[in-house]
Design a protein that fits this description.
The complex is a heterodimer of chains A (113) and B (114). Chain A has strands at residues 3-6, 11-14, 19-26, 32-38, 45-51, 56-59, 62-67, 72-77, 86-93, 102-103, 107-112. With 113 residues, chain A is mainly beta. Chain A is globular and about 40 Å long. Chain B has 114 residues and is mainly beta. Chain B has strands at residues 5-7, 10-13, 19-24, 31-38, 42-50, 53-56, 65-71, 74-79, 88-95, 104-105, 109-113. In chain B, the strands form two sheets. In chain B, strands 2, 4, 5, 6, 9, 10 and 11 form a seven-stranded mixed β-sheet that branches. The radius of gyration of chain B is 13 Å and the shape is globular.
């Protein structure tokens, strides 16, 4: 069966360090993979999208990698700040039209001073 | 700053009552999604529409849930009758449904069924 796995345990890191979150999937062949941020009491907010033929994508302090052989995406936040504390969700898009995204359960990131 | 709006933000009701949640998608977006989020299951797609036509509602319990788009500016999700297991946060999202597009989420409706 199709499965998306994100580390359910919270990730605690110190301010200034690089946070790395993992998204593993099985029995999918996604055209796109997206990362969203969700703050408590709010809806998810889109951060980055990476296509199946791209290895890496960057946006300011964010970097996403996509390894379709390993069926894994890594999401990095460099020089992390307490304001980066949130839950991060990965989502698989099989068609590339964002029509039927399947979300992982998310990983909560806590950045401390 | 265009946003998806949802009403109500919070709803507490008793088992057996009808619940209606409303969503106004971003103007110009032709695709609307309904999701349910719980701690156990995460974010699950219930249904989605394109150009107001339902394209997929396979994630929705058909016997009690219904979703409609009376017009391009309003999407509704109705539960009748509601049950305690329906307690969750319900999100509406909209998008353009094109390659490389993303989904824009509303703030959600937190539903508690007693």
């Amino acid at each position: 069966s199709q499965k998306i796995e994100q580390n359910s345990e919270a990730l605690n890191i110190q301010e200034g360090k690089t946070a790395t979150l993992t998204c593993n999937y099985t029995n999918y062949s996604p055209a796109y993979l997206q990362w969203y941020r969700q703050d408590p009491g709010r809806g998810p907010v889109f951060l980055l999208l990476i296509r199946e033929n791209e290895k890496e994508k960057r946006k300011e302090r964010l970097k996403v990698t996509f390894d379709t052989t390993l069926k894994q995406s890594l999401f990095h936040i460099t020089a992390s700040q307490p304001a980066d504390s949130a839950t991060y969700l990965c989502a698989l898009d099989p068609t590339g039209t964002a029509s039927k995204l399947t979300f992982g359960t998310g990983t909560r990131l806590q950045v401390t001073l | 700053d265009a946003r998806v709006t949802q009403t109500p933000r919070h709803k507490v009701t008793e088992m057996g009552q009808e619940v209606t949640m409303r969503c106004q998608p971003i103007l110009g977006h032709n695709t609307v999604f309904w999701y349910r989020q719980t701690m156990m299951q995460g974010l699950e797609l219930l249904a989605y529409f394109r150009n107001r036509a339902p394209l997929d509602d396979s994630g929705m319990p058909k016997d009690r849930f219904s979703a409609e788009m009376p017009d391009a500016t309003l999407a509704t999700l109705k539960i009748q009758p509601s049950e305690p297991r329906d307690s969750a946060v319900y999100f509406c999202a909209s998008g353009l449904g094109q390659g490389g597009d993303t989904q824009y989420f509303g703030p959600g409706t937190r539903l508690t069924v007693l």
